[in-house]
TrEMBL record:
<dbReference type="InterPro" id="IPR011682">
    <property type="entry name" value="Glyco_hydro_38_C"/>
</dbReference>
<dbReference type="InterPro" id="IPR027291">
    <property type="entry name" value="Glyco_hydro_38_N_sf"/>
</dbReference>
<keyword id="KW-0378">Hydrolase</keyword>
<dbReference type="Pfam" id="PF09261">
    <property type="entry name" value="Alpha-mann_mid"/>
</dbReference>
<keyword id="KW-0326">Glycosidase</keyword>
<comment type="similarity">
    <text>Belongs to the glycosyl hydrolase 38 family.</text>
</comment>
<dbReference type="InterPro" id="IPR000602">
    <property type="entry name" value="Glyco_hydro_38_N"/>
</dbReference>
<dbReference type="InterPro" id="IPR011013">
    <property type="entry name" value="Gal_mutarotase_sf_dom"/>
</dbReference>
<dbReference type="InterPro" id="IPR015341">
    <property type="entry name" value="Glyco_hydro_38_cen"/>
</dbReference>
<dbReference type="InterPro" id="IPR041147">
    <property type="entry name" value="GH38_C"/>
</dbReference>
<dbReference type="InterPro" id="IPR028995">
    <property type="entry name" value="Glyco_hydro_57/38_cen_sf"/>
</dbReference>
<dbReference type="Pfam" id="PF07748">
    <property type="entry name" value="Glyco_hydro_38C"/>
</dbReference>
<feature type="domain" description="Glycoside hydrolase family 38 central">
    <location>
        <begin position="264"/>
        <end position="340"/>
    </location>
</feature>
<dbReference type="InterPro" id="IPR013780">
    <property type="entry name" value="Glyco_hydro_b"/>
</dbReference>
<dbReference type="GO" id="GO:0046872">
    <property type="term" value="F:metal ion binding"/>
</dbReference>
<dbReference type="GO" id="GO:0004559">
    <property type="term" value="F:alpha-mannosidase activity"/>
</dbReference>
<dbReference type="Pfam" id="PF01074">
    <property type="entry name" value="Glyco_hydro_38N"/>
</dbReference>
Length: 812
């Protein structure tokens, strides 16, 4: 029997304080740890989070050199090869990859080693694809604490955690607590000793002052010395997680857990809409910018931006589990907003340089009065989507200002429906146009606005009344009394998508704290938003828009239901002006199926969960499918979004949590005192979009993964001019052969000029003989993908060199 005493200091760089205070506490804690190492020959310190080492390196280089020496001696254990300890549900799959990419490469560059133990003691849950991401980031082991036994039963403290692709990491759940505030460890050690019979004879016991830092104290170490050799206790050894896992006996009957590790603090999936939306927006802007910057480097010679990593590091920092979860103090979100703004500015700048470099090289013949528009698609499959842009300026009145006799043509001269919609500027010479663009995989197409007095006026794409819209696929009707969907009839399948009123905005009583501690579901409805007005605000050959304005208390909800020509998803643009407290807003959608199955997208994967109404985390989409009640076969509805992460499914009714309004950083049992003023979260205006995708068959048949990606990474229109150029008027740079294959990231390699291409299989089915074509390089990546497998490829700048598969750190 052995107890590995793990001296650590859980450091929250941001929580009830801002990052500047966390910065100082990291310095103080690391100084203390170094002093304890100097004073005690057998003391070992364990720490994670590359960002804190970078702080020390830049601010106290002498201390950093001390740490480097102690790492080399084996007295300072580097765990958690990530930039920091993030929320482990809400970041995208690629964000988890970047945590390891930048964290592990930093450790290797500065210390000559990488972490082998993943380390997230305080994160509030852990999604089911982490074993593969950890394994392919060089970490064979994992340490966590939440959820604790009362939140999720596990067969053992020590188990092999398996993801859907078959990857496994040896995992340990910390008993009781990761930090110890008291000086004496008697009680804590005794409790941990009780875990030995179910921990195969070895157990880790974590000690040291934490949360705000501090680390192991002299009193802690004296207490351990006094307990060593005491009857009834196992051998106590000052250790670290690396040594613990090295002593695990391979012959032990260690169980396998193939599941996610949930649930803890379910309110964190929705609280503080701002940080959630900034995170999603920044992730996608950086990914799109990287894709086109990589292409523009090879096609147009545009230098690849050197500051993308700095931008990613800001995004990753704000994925810390007390920032992205929404549980920090209010000023911390001013800092987060600014950091996200920095990252998105870098992304927008890099993207603009790339797109302008590409579009400038497209050959567009001169034509009097013609205005060319280039539409770019960032997805590695062909997309049909609305392109909308402002049109005209004072110096071009009569040329690029629409007079009503223009036509829009594609690259082959075919007429494309175009619609003038409400401009973002209220002026005489500035308009906004919208059209449905058909753009090839990760590529572009040129459209031309030309004068054509003979062009006939195109009919509207849908029939409409003030409360309904009908196109070739759907008939959507809004109840004018409530503002809810009264009917969404799928004409192709011959069924009603919903069994009752849908897009129903319900208000729930939510007295829980910021985390939603002790909650598993939110189901106490206390009211609904009801319609103030329902009207048709746009109607033409491209789209029709029904605007519903609803009210509850002092709050207003505006939903624009957008039915477009030739696309299946019905998008809903939402504006909420919220002024309620201790309440939650959900949108409910009762899918008309029997035997419902609820599927949620998780980072680089998906998972089926119970339909019991529990609050669950999700990414870009969720889906409820089952036996169609109004027809035959399987039917379902996918709910897509561009910035929400909290959902529940009760029976066949799926709900999206729009917002919560607790007090900032309220942690039970902290009391709410009368007479004090408190700041409440999510007050005021926020905007986001969701989309409804009714479908025959499953979410796989409907292409839910791709449709959700298109909502988050939209086509980009760019006004151009005519000139000679080497590029044709339509082109594709990257495409995938398999419908279930998602090309998630394309970037320049961290070392050298090679290209990195990362893909994953999204349907949970083998994809044999898959191909990713790179026609601008004359290269094709060929590979077999297992179910839910992530693969990373290095395409050498030398066209004669072979393409090789790497891990997520870009090492072979």
């Amino acid at each position: 029997m052995k107890m590995h005493m793990i001296g650590n200091a859980h450091l929250d760089p941001v929580w009830l304080w801002q990052w500047q205070e966390g910065f100082q506490e990291a310095k103080a804690t690391f100084r203390s740890a170094l002093d304890r190492i100097a004073e005690y020959d057998d003391f070992v310190f364990t720490s994670s989070s590359a960002v804190m080492y970078e702080w020390i390196e830049r601010n106290e280089p002498a201390m950093f050199e001390e740490i480097r020496r102690r790492v080399a001696e084996g007295r300072w254990a580097l765990c958690g090869g990530w930039w920091l300890q993030p929320d482990c549900n809400l970041p995208s799959g690629e964000s988890f990859v970047r945590q390891g990419l930048y964290g592990q490469r930093y450790f290797m560059e500065k210390f000559g080693v990488t972490a082998t133990v993943g380390y997230n003691p305080d994160s509030f849950g852990h999604h089911g694809m982490l074993p593969q991401i950890l394994k392919k980031s060089g970490m064979d082991y994992y340490v966590f604490m939440r959820p604790q036994p009362h939140e999720k039963e596990l067969p053992s403290r020590l188990f092999r955690w398996r993801s859907d692709d078959g990857s496994e990491v040896l995992t340990f759940r910390i008993p009781f607590e990761y930090t110890r505030w008291g000086k004496e460890l008697d009680e804590h050690v005794a409790k941990c000793a009780g875990e030995l019979p179910v921990s195969f004879g070895h157990v880790m016991c974590f000690y040291g002052v934490g949360n705000h830092g501090g680390g192991p104290t002299k009193e802690n170490l004296a207490s351990i010395a006094s307990l060593s050799g005491r009857d009834g206790l196992p051998e106590l050894t000052l250790s670290d997680p690396v040594r613990y896992f090295a002593e695990v006996d391979p012959s032990w009957p260690i169980p396998v857990v193939h599941d996610e590790l949930q649930m803890h603090a379910v309110g964190c999936y929705s609280v503080h809409s701002g940080i959630k939306r900034w995170n999603r927006e920044a992730e996608n802007k950086l990914l799109v910018a990287e894709k086109f910057s990589a292409v523009a480097k090879d096609v147009a010679g545009q230098p690849y931006p050197a500051d993308f990593e700095a931008a990613w590091r800001h995004v990753l920092f704000n994925q810390f589990h007390d920032i992205l979860a929404g549980t920090s103090i209010e000023p911390a979100y001013d800092d987060a907003r600014d950091m996200h703004g920095y990252a998105m500015t870098i992304a927008a700048t890099g993207l603009n340089y790339a797109l302008q470099a590409l579009s400038w090289r497209i050959g567009i013949p001169a034509e009097d009065g013609m205005v060319p528009i280039v539409v770019f698609n960032p997805n590695a499959w062909p997309v049909r989507a609305e392109a909308a842009l402002q049109f005209g300026h004072p110096g071009l009145v009569g040329k690029s200002f629409l007079r009503g006799d223009e036509a829009l043509l594609d690259d082959e001269g075919r007429r494309v429906p175009m619609q003038v919609v409400q401009s973002l500027a209220t002026t005489r010479f500035r308009q906004r146009i919208a059209f449905m663009a058909d753009v090839p995989a990760l590529g572009y197409r040129v459209y031309r606005v030309v004068a054509d007095a003979s062009a006939p006026e195109l009919p509207a794409a849908a029939e409409a009344t003030p409360t309904s819209v009908e196109n070739d696929r759907y008939r959507l009707a809004i109840d004018p009394a409530t503002g809810w969907i009264a009917s969404l009839y799928d004409k192709r399948a011959g069924v009603e998508a919903f069994s009752g009123p849908a897009a129903r905005p319900v208000v729930l009583h939510d007295p829980s704290d910021t985390w939603g501690h002790n909650m598993t579901k939110y189901d106490e409805e206390i009211g609904v938003f009801t319609a103030r007005s329902v009207r048709l605000v746009e109607h033409g050959p491209v789209k029709s828009v029904l605007r519903v304005v609803s009210e509850y208390g002092r709050s207003t909800l505006t939903q624009d239901f957008i039915v477009r020509a030739g696309v299946d998803p019905i998008e809903v643009a939402v504006t909420v002006d919220w002024h309620e407290r201790f309440k939650m807003l959900k949108l409910r959608f009762p899918v008309d199926v029997a035997n419902p199955v609820a599927t949620y997208e998780i980072p680089y994967g998906h998972i089926v969960r119970e339909t019991d109404g529990d609050e669950e985390p999700g990414q870009n989409w969720i889906d409820v499918s089952g036996a169609a009640l109004g027809g035959s076969g399987v039917y379902g509805v996918s709910l897509l979004n561009d910035g929400k992460y909290a959902f529940d499914v009760r029976g066949a009714e799926m709900s999206m949590t729009v917002l919560r309004s607790p007090i900032y950083a309220h942690h039970i049992p902290g009391p709410i005192e009368e007479g004090k003023d408190y700041a409440f979260i999510d007050q005021g205006v926020q905007r986001f979009s969701y989309a409804l995708l009714p479908h025959r068959g499953t979410w796989k048949d409907a292409g839910a993964v791709r449709h959700a990606a298109e909502l988050n990474q939209r086509v980009i229109p760019l006004m151009e001019t005519y000139r000679d150029g080497p590029l044709p008027q339509v082109g594709s740079f990257v495409s995938a052969s398999h419908d279930a294959l998602v090309v998630a990231a394309i970037k320049k390699a961290e070392d050298g000029d090679d290209l990195i291409v990362r893909c994953y299989e999204a349907h949970g089915e083998p994809a044999a003989g898959a191909e990713i074509s790179l026609p601008h390089l004359g290269r094709v990546i060929r590979a077999d993908f297992g179910p839910c497998e992530i693969k990373t490829f290095r395409v050498p700048a030398d066209a004669a060199a072979p393409i090789v598969e790497t891990n997520l750190i870009e090492w072979a």
